[in-house]
Design brief:
By secondary structure, the chain is an alpha/beta fold. It contains seven helices and eight strands; from the N terminus they run E-H-H-E-E-H-E-H-H-H-E-H-E-E-E. A hairpin with a 5-residue loop joins strand 6 and strand 7.
Length: 207
């Protein structure tokens, strides 16, 4: 019988957040955002060889509704992971499907600056960064209401937002620590929507 880690006393509830496996657009450097790009053949092969971080194989599981995250969840052993819109990737608006070079060629070298800074950043036709932070905080709040550990298969933008909420990073200065997107970010979420980092860059297992 498998016993799930439960929060009691100093034993804190944990949430493992990890990014989906590689896609063809990842390899091409294209912004995916809400475009439902599937895993590449290489991505499926890679994720089929991996297992969740230690201690999370039987955690309650959530996933972004986008197919690249749902495929990854199934390959990691979570075919029944609960889709949650709050785990969807950041909406990049008109820049989705484009490379950085294409954006700069079309919209100018100051395209990013004109879209704003930090939480005020909003790509044309896209999502304000503050809205992304708010929905991730809302997800953390709900996860913290249950007593057992959880895992969420999601996207780079969500991981960066969770890290921001857990550390107070201002998103304008360089990130204090490097997020390895091939590993998991493990948090101890709080009922107020905040969190603390329990483990940075936790490795996935191998089959």
């Amino acid at each position: 019988m498998h016993i799930l880690h439960a929060a009691s006393g100093e034993d804190k509830l944990r949430l493992a957040l990890l990014r989906h496996g590689p896609t063809a657009w990842n390899a091409q450097g294209r912004i995916q955002g809400r475009i439902d790009e599937p895993l590449s053949a290489e991505g499926r092969t890679l994720m089929a060889r991996l297992t969740p971080p230690a201690g999370f194989a039987h955690a309650r599981a959530y996933t972004s509704p986008l197919s690249r995250a749902r495929e990854t969840a199934a390959l990691l052993g979570f075919p029944d992971a609960v889709p949650d819109e709050r785990l969807a990737e950041y909406h990049w608006g008109e820049w989705e499907g484009m490379t950085r070079e294409e954006i700069l060629a079309r919209d100018g070298a100051d395209a990013g600056a004109r879209a704003g800074r930090a939480a005020a950043f909003t790509p044309k036709g896209g999502e304000p960064t503050q809205a992304l932070l708010d929905r991730v905080a809302d997800f953390l709040h709900d996860v913290a209401r249950e007593p057992t550990d959880a895992i969420a298969i999601t996207h780079r933008g969500v991981l960066r937002s969770a890290y921001t909420l857990a550390t107070g990073w201002d998103m304008e200065t360089p990130m204090p620590a490097k997020l390895d997107l091939a590993t998991a970010l493990i948090l101890e979420p709080a009922p107020d929507g905040g969190a603390r980092v329990a483990e940075l860059n936790a490795p996935l297992g191998k089959k």
